[in-house]
Write a structure and sequence with these properties.
heterodimer; A: about 250 residues; mainly alpha; about 5% strand; elongated; B: about 190 residues; 9 helices
Amino acid sequence: MTAQAVHLLERKQLWLRHAWPIILSGAIEPLIWQAAAGYGFGRYIGSVDVGGRLVSYTDFVGPGLIAATAMIGAVFDTTIDVLWRLRFSRTYDAILSAPILPRDVALGEISAGALRGTFNAALFLAVLTGFGAVRSWWGLMAIPVGALTALGFAAAGMAFTTYLRSFSAFEWLPTITTMLFLFSATFFPPSALGRAHWVVEFSPLYHAVSLMRSAMAGHLQLADVGHVAVLVAMAAVGLGIASRRLGALLLR
Amino acid sequence: MIAAAAMTVASLECCWPVLYGFTRFRSFEVIASTPVRPASIVGGVAMFTWLRAAMPAAGVAVVLLLTGEARWGGLVLAVVFAALSALATGMPLAAFAATRLRQDSFPLIQRFVVLPMLLFGGVLFPVSGLPGWAAALVKVTPLWHGVVLTRAAALSSLSGRAVTEHLAYLAVWIAGGMAMSVWTFSKRLAR
């Protein structure tokens, strides 16, 4: 992390003082889903088989929701507001008149998104712990895994945003995140899709959810190396694209 | 899901577009400068919301038809009921949106009113699974009445008495919401 990127985080933190109700309420949203799963439809489902272990549906959904909330926090932080600063308020043009490189801007914004996603994950972990849904100290793994998930999705969101020209494209954003949310093994194991289970593997959120589930249960396996690799690759490629595109858009 | 899809769209339609009719696009001010009265504007918003809510409901109905879960006669009726219950949720929101200057409260409404209704309002699991106080709360919401009607229509198990009762309840919400909207729209346009 460069010193310049840290300045961008500082700027973000000043701005956040006015936005905290939205941030906090976004972090509380998974609680509503968890309650619906735990007290509502989860009762009609019973337990779920995860790699040979039977876990209750509430325990099954919890880690999935932590990963999903990390994704949603990160994606919403690095898309709509970033487009506004990039194309309309011209904040980045102003920032680049200081000795800061486009790469630092990308790094700063992505870190801010990653921090917001991590905050969501940590807060939801605390809530789940309060409800007695976290069984061991392995539960703390939710924070590093949530941070990695948020980093990957913040980088992807930032890279995606640099290709947009208008806000109308964001009509699709909730559609994409909702599809990922519902079909990434958050609410059911991939085997529930029968022969079409491989489709789930194309969802980056699936890798985050699987990693979260095994890490929080303390059952890390070889497959989890693959999940980590997918998220790291997403972060690296996203950062690379976002830096290049920001340079091309802003330094003309 | 037919009722839920209709309500989701109606709740969006009655928040942002209503506010922007007063602020960003000022379309309501433009209309009000003609002999059209606020009550007629509210009537127009209601009719458009009903149609707009019926569209995604019909989309879900088509999927059900293709998967062979229900008959099309019942599904047409289900879409009509779903859009009515969506209107019953939407019009009070429109009345509220007409009093706002900014959109800040709308995401909170989506998160803490609309989403809990979707998750607990009898869409995904029977209300009988909830504790007594929560079930009583759910039965106040227009969505639950819409879900009961929609489900009965789609599964061809409608009874005349139930239809009358639930529709009457929804009518109270729609009429109340529209009356409040006429009041808030008039006040805003008089400024």
